């Protein structure tokens, strides 16, 4: 299982080498998530319309290692954008992937760019 | 540096370490702790929870790292066998020795095992440590396997009843044997014991009072217990809970002064007869008594820490043994002197056999103060009464109001406001936190919420009994500072659910964004989104498709997510009636998509293991065959369970199946604060378990009896009679009114039973509103329901017919692949997700 986690490492915007086009903006739901695939990775993509911000993170919930985060509910906690896992409602910051319930495990996040109506996600591999 | 050695790493030994670790002079001490048990100190008070959680770590008072972080050396699994007072050394069972300047004896106690022939036979257990519980559980499993399931607890005191509950939950036939003529003889009088006994027996635990055990018999393991009155009881397992015996063996050996019936003598500084040795907790004999509760033990730990650090704190001259607990699901409390009887005392008692409630208070004849009391079945007044007692506060003019509630006029707590308590009033007795400390933590600005207060003062962190009072204090203090406190939905909406419901309706707010713009802030979250979704659905009967992103994750995909991220499919089967043709369709669909199939507890069929992208295909086939969504995922009507009724059953009075189908069809799709379940039984044999539902209808001679506000689940409650002998139409009319009234006024995720509990005036008031239409809103409630009924649409049908809505069920935006990471493993002739 730990192998699965290793597949996901946070990529800071300046370290992204490949910007992968994953669809057009209207392929993605508003104020909710959807999943995309990049090689062996499943990435959850979220669009927050109130601030028109986009976020991406691993689809794998580190709590029980299930591929579900894209189906979780989004929102914010004290202004920090977050996603709540649909299985047990553990919540994670979409800004830095930290665990907002104060538990050990966190998630990897990825940078998102929007250009001419297309959605790109930055990867370092 | 002074060397402190603590013998015993139990609850009190740990409290000593915790208090010393927090002390400003902490650095002057080197602390070494010996614990004979394998684990660091754990919470014995909540020991029984280990049976359900099976997680010993959850009970730890602090993780092992805590000791290291606080520079305390903890040696578990090591027992001290000797103390040499002249050289100030202790010896371990491995013959190592260690020197001390101060020695703290916190060795606790062991279970007192009476000297009955046969107590050493296999099958006899005690109940004090995690290992005891493991042994009990293993033995119970073995017994059940062999079909022997008679278990008895020797001792009907507080711990005995707790053990009885555990034994019952292990699935054993359980007996309680008590020597005294009543249960909990130290806390309860005869009438209270009778009430408790009735409650316990209604849960099928048998109680044997006034029994003196003579011998435990059995060949390889115990088989029966004989009593001196020549009766006997066949048993396969016996748990002894006949009191405690202080573990003073070390003290006796090294010549410390001990009590005749055990215990290490201490003065009010917790010093033993050797001034370098202190004793605290259940091993300490203070004021001629041994105290088997944590609160006095914690106070002793505080005194000992203060003394060795040069302070002057002394132990309170008298120890309060008041207790409030839940035993076998029944609230029990006693405080002060529960039995006191003499010419200067008046006892006032209240008994309600139907509700299983008994309360007694003992007050001074002149009405000046409260001396003690007992409560069984309802201890909600305990905190108030205890405060009146312990602070010797003035009593109201009619002291009986204290247990009866004031009748007529405005109902007001006997305390007036919690703020009227003196600052010294001890609110949390486990952690010795006073009202002043709690209020100061808020007025000083350190704390703003209940959880802040718990963190900072530790109040309410142990047994939790004082939680209601701490909450009241927090609220009252904040209010006195001009800060309004109310039950707001979350950080995004500063309104209660009912206020939001009214706002949405009043301003005809149509979607979540509009609600946020007008009345909220931020993006919303997983708390407020589903609440608003439910409000929109209840007011406009909109399905979960219209604003999919704000639906709870299950509703968003119109299916219940399962352990591995796949979904279940539950079509509606109204009243549980299904044709063979439809049954075959379910079978065919399950087979085609390889779904695990199970009959649910709600009289329908659940198909598990569907992948996200398969849901629409499966539902298309089901809908073509005439099925509709069963809303198993929603906070909405689930099932209306039926029994076969008068059409086939020889006892049936009316056609319960037809009526159940009619009701289920009427309310299907109805969203509500929590899920709703119904039942219709054809006679009082009640095979549909209608009284275990939010609404239940039972056929009687002359019509239907309508019951409301019951449920199974975590806190089972029987539904209560709302109206009798109704015809079909009146029954539906009352149901319409009841349901809309509940939907309008309940808190989020509050089922009908807790809603009724909170409804001022209770069932009598509800009857007035629904049956007598005292508020004059009957017609409005009915009209509202009628409109909701008219607007019903199957949301799965809606979803599969709209390509835009269908996008939701695509696993990947940028690929047509399906999720190949899913793993199933075979189980019997079907499959299941790989285990976590
Ligand atoms: C499938 C089923 C168990 C079964 O195999 O029989 C079931 C399964 C679940 N129940 Fe249940 N309950 C099922 C009948 C019941 C019953 C029995 C009944 O309805 O007669 C009860 C007790 C009766 C009652 O509710 O009053 C019941 C009391 C609960 C509770 C506790 C509710 C409470 O008020 O304490 C929960 C938790 C909750 O709702 O918060 C729950 C929650 C759940 C959830 C939704 C847990 C979850 O969030 O995943 C389970 C998922 C169902 C799924 O994925 O399809 N389930 N659940 C039953 C489906 C019935 C149906 O046809 O719709
Ligand atoms: C099932 C159960 C339910 C309870 N419920 C409640 C309740 O609701 N409310 C309440 O107030 N109280 C309750 N109690 C009582 C409460 O748990 C005790 O009062 C408390 O644990 C006493 O703490 P202690 O540290 O004195 O003793 P213990 O917690 O027993 O700790 C003593 C420790 O010292 C160790 N030890 C003994 N001798 C040696 C030695 N020579 N060398 C090394 N180590 C040694 C023991 O192994 C033990 O770990 C309950 C107790 C039980 C068993
Ligand atoms: S009782 Fe209900 S919620 Fe619990 S495991 Fe069974 S189905 Fe799931
Ligand atoms: S699997 Fe995500 S919270 Fe449990």
TrEMBL record, chain A:
Signal peptide: none
Domain Rieske: 20-121
Protein name, UniProt field: Nitrite reductase (NADH) small subunit
GO BP terms in the entry: nitrate assimilation
A Pfam entry, by short name: Rieske_2
NCBIfam families xref list: nirD_assim_sml
Annotated source species: Algoriphagus yeomjeoni
Keyword terms, alphabetized: 2Fe-2S, Heme, Iron, Iron-sulfur, Metal-binding, Nitrate assimilation, Oxidoreductase
Superkingdom classification of source: Bacteria
InterPro entries in UniProt: NasD-like, Rieske-like_NirD, Rieske_2Fe-2S, Rieske_2Fe-2S_sf
Record-level Gene Ontology MF annotations: 2 iron, 2 sulfur cluster binding; metal ion binding; nitrite reductase [NAD(P)H] activity
TrEMBL record, chain B:
Cofactor: binding comment: Binds 1 [4Fe-4S] cluster per subunit.
Keyword Flavoprotein part of the UniProt annotation: yes
Residues covered by the NADH-rubredoxin oxidoreductase C-terminal domain: 322-385
Keywords: 2Fe-2S, 4Fe-4S, FAD, Flavoprotein, Heme, Iron, Iron-sulfur, Metal-binding, Nitrate assimilation, Oxidoreductase
SUPFAM superfamilies: FAD/NAD(P)-binding domain, Nitrite and sulphite reductase 4Fe-4S domain-like, Nitrite/Sulfite reductase N-terminal domain-like
Residues bound to siroheme: 687
Annotated binding of [4Fe-4S] cluster, by residue: 643, 649, 683, 687
UniProt record, GO biological process: nitrate assimilation
Cofactor(s) needed for function: [4Fe-4S] cluster; siroheme; [2Fe-2S] cluster; FAD
InterPro entries from the UniProt entry: BFD-like_2Fe2S-bd_dom, BFD-like_2Fe2S-bd_dom_sf, FAD/NAD-bd_sf, FAD/NAD-binding_dom, FAD/NAD-linked_Rdtase_dimer_sf, NasD-like, NiRdtase/SiRdtase_haem-b_fer, Nit/Sulf_reduc_fer-like_dom_sf
Pathway: Nitrogen metabolism; nitrate reduction (assimilation)
Residues of the Nitrite/Sulfite reductase ferredoxin-like domain: 562-623
Positions of the Nitrite/sulphite reductase 4Fe-4S domain: 634-770
Signal peptide stretch: none
GO MF, any single term: 2 iron, 2 sulfur cluster binding
Domain BFD-like [2Fe-2S]-binding stretches: 427-474
Annotated Pfam families: Fer2_BFD, NIR_SIR, NIR_SIR_ferr, Pyr_redox_2, Rubredoxin_C
FAD/NAD(P)-binding domain: residues covered: 2-305
Family of this protein: Belongs to the nitrite and sulfite reductase 4Fe-4S domain family.
NCBIfam families: nitri_red_nirB (TIGR02374), PRK14989.1 (NF011565)
Record's protein name: Nitrite reductase (NADH) large subunit
Species the sequence originates in: Algoriphagus yeomjeoni
